[in-house]
Design brief:
- The structure is a homodimer of 396-residue chains.
- Chain A has 396 residues and is an alpha/beta fold.
- Chain A folds into four domains: 162 residues, Molybdenum Cofactor Biosythetic Enzyme, Chain A; 56 residues, Molybdopterin biosynthesis moea protein, domain 2; 78 residues, Molybdopterin biosynthesis moea protein, domain 3 (Molybdopterin biosynthesis moeA protein, domain 3), CATH 2.170.190.11; 69 residues, Beta Barrel (Beta-clip).
- Chain A has seven helices and 26 strands.
- The two termini of chain A are 36 Å apart.
- Chains A and B meet through α2, β15, α3 and α7 of A and α2, β15, α3 and α7 of B.
Chain lengths: 396, 396
């Protein structure tokens, strides 16, 4: 028999209890630039040299000494010799990105010039440095370019590559052991329909795929029956992971042993949260490893995963908190909530209309396949009416 | 000498011209469930069987014949024999998810019962089907569960797995040939600082990484010098790809041959768009393959990539249009725009304040590393003032 849920902890309080007990990983690894998208920088990127490292023409045209063409205009053009190395009053053809010769201090745009034999007619005057990208204009040697903790995007990688780096130091991905539990759960490798009373394992698969999507590395563990000793063994053999997620066995029935086992090995911080669906979620710590115990009912498990496992994974892995995609919408019907519970109501978003999904319960996972968003109703709000404007969090 | 930009096409018009000329891929592949996140379903998923495939107890308790306990209450409990196969007036212990015996038509919650020897005291009456998940309650045999074209999420995969499927048919990922061009561009493998006038290749890397992030498969091609014949050869040898992106050589200078070469092999639909930065972007079609020619200036290229290459890639690959993450913010300073240009202004978002990024031009890629968002200013708006509320599109 599991522990009894005496009182419910508010979602926000439960999350803080869990996050406050988590230490972030410090282990890092060097990886090639091409593999570093969505990884987290572990050490800052500083410019080891100036970019550009030469005076770069910013336009197609002629590099000149600005002093040579003072007063030049359409009606009073100046003729310059065309040469790369003559001593004075000459100009040099340059293209965008070309090196500007030391003898020049500005570039005249091609539109303001006409080559005539060995000479070039210049029809405008320019200030010194006009159309020249100075040394270090993009990045100056020693400048901090990206801070540690930054989540790497393709555009960052281009900047890092322009500094001549081919590898970056990132935090190691957190390894998350995913342990499905339940006497009724059978492996997905079964090719026939399981006998009555048995269901295919799907929660662990879903959790593992979300873990990978959110930046972790999933370790898919075998299904554990509802036996305290076996649950204990499964947890013990995964204490080398950075986080453990158990699916099922978190309620208060005869077969619900998970929270009690976690408590015997470490500490249960929370058992029972004001979350609907998701009330039997339990959160604990064993040997400094966060342990999230998700309800076995798939939708309740999914909501618990979003509410607790995702922020926990991010804290473990030093992964910045990425905003959910939120769409403003108007309810096409009423949605209810339970007082004291933060309610995740599934909706179908069509354009900017959110249709409540009528569903018989948190066991009906297909309701999530049909839904594309949650409307999250705070504890102190009693549902939303038809016509009300709401924020829909996309289920991604 | 490249083609001349005579007039600018509006961004929206240019996008429509490009998208209208694109045929989506029809090739599909069967892949294991575990690999299908962010892939696009090519054929609908229909339930091949009922889920659940047996009458499932929705609560821990006792399965009963509801007729046997009519009138049962706390003050007037009914005693039932505890047996699995007796003929009448018995009940069976069930757990959430258990098979409900054929002899029963409802489940009484454990809280409303007390086992006394071989008998069970039942203290409530129940309706038929109470706390029973009927056969097909979650999914009915033959029911359409997910439509073709759906972008697969972990929760969808769990639903598909619960139907006993281990593979899904998805659209093949579009192969995108990424061709960097430019006499000044040298390979990143160079370990020393390149000589003055030469720059490391970074645009192709950035493009390839975005292609992969957005659901395509990048083919990284060698750098091509600014010679029409070599550009033509590079394009010809990639006409087996599903899309081609060229970086650089799109302007109107002596070395800008890309749009003319594309036009000689197929059709240039657009050269020059009202996009800032990104004006020299060119869009074309060769042998039914969309060809996006991005400016070589990295920020202009990035903006062209977001504005054109991303929607084109999605259309080619049947990938649903995913909303950008948009954050409401207030400008901490003024940002300018050019009339007639859709302007992508880089901002640094701190909380809900957007700081305009002062920058010397579209050649300065580090400005994007510093920025985390774009404020997109429409053609008919003349910039935004300090204090103005704006939508910031996160650069992800």
């Amino acid at each position: 028999m599991g522990t009894i849920i005496k009182e419910l902890t508010k979602v926000e309080d439960a999350k803080i209890l869990l996050l406050d007990s988590i230490s972030s990983l410090s282990a890092t690894e060097l990886i090639p630039l091409i593999d570093c998208i969505d990884r987290v920088l572990a050490s800052p990127i500083t410019a080891k040299r100036d970019v550009p490292h030469y005076r770069r023409a910013a336009m197609d045209g002629y590099a000149v000494q600005s002093a040579d063409i003072i007063g030049a205009s359409v009606t009073n053009p100046v003729m310059l010799g065309l040469s790369d190395d003559a001593e004075q009053s000459t100009c040099t053809r340059v293209h965008t990105g070309s090196n500007v010769p030391d003898s020049a201090d500005a570039v005249v745009m091609i539109e303001d010039t006409t080559p005539i034999g060995d000479m070039v007619e210049i029809r405008t005057q320019v200030h010194p440095n006009k159309h020249i990208g100075c040394i270090g204009e993009d990045m100056t040697k020693g400048e901090l370019i990206l801070e540690a903790g930054h989540l790497l995007r393709p555009c960052d990688v281009a900047v890092i590559a322009s500094l001549g780096l081919s590898e970056v130091e990132v935090y190691r991905k957190p390894v998350v052991a995913v342990i499905p539990t339940g006497d009724e759960v059978v492996p997905r490798t079964t090719s026939e329909i399981p006998p009555p009373g048995k269901v295919l394992e799907t929660n662990g698969l879903m959790v593992g795929l979300y873990v990978e999507k959110w930046g972790g590395k999933a370790r898919y563990c075998d299904i554990v029956p509802d036996k305290p000793k076996l649950i204990e063994d499964a947890i013990q053999s995964n204490l080398d992971a950075d986080m453990i997620i158990l699916c099922g066995g978190t309620s208060v029935g005869e077969r619900d042993h998970v929270p009690a086992v976690v408590d015997s090995l470490g500490d249960i911080l929370v058992h029972g949260v004001g979350l609907s669906p998701g009330k039997p979620t339990a959160l604990g710590i064993i040997d400094n490893i966060p342990v999230v115990c998700m309800p076995g009912y798939p939708v309740a498990g999914l909501v618990g995963l979003f509410a607790f496992a995702r922020p926990a994974l991010r804290k473990v892995g030093n992964i910045p908190d990425i905003s959910d995609t939120i769409i403003k919408a108007r309810m096409s019907g009423k949605i209810n909530s339970k007082e004291g519970y933060m309610t995740y109501a599934r909706v179908i978003l069509e354009g900017n209309i959110a249709h409540p999904l009528m569903t018989s319960g948190s066991g009906v996972l297909s309701s999530v396949a049909k839904a594309n968003g949650f409307v999250i109703i705070p504890e102190n709000v009693e549902g939303y009416e038809e016509g009300q404007d709401v924020d829909v969090v996309l289920i991604e």
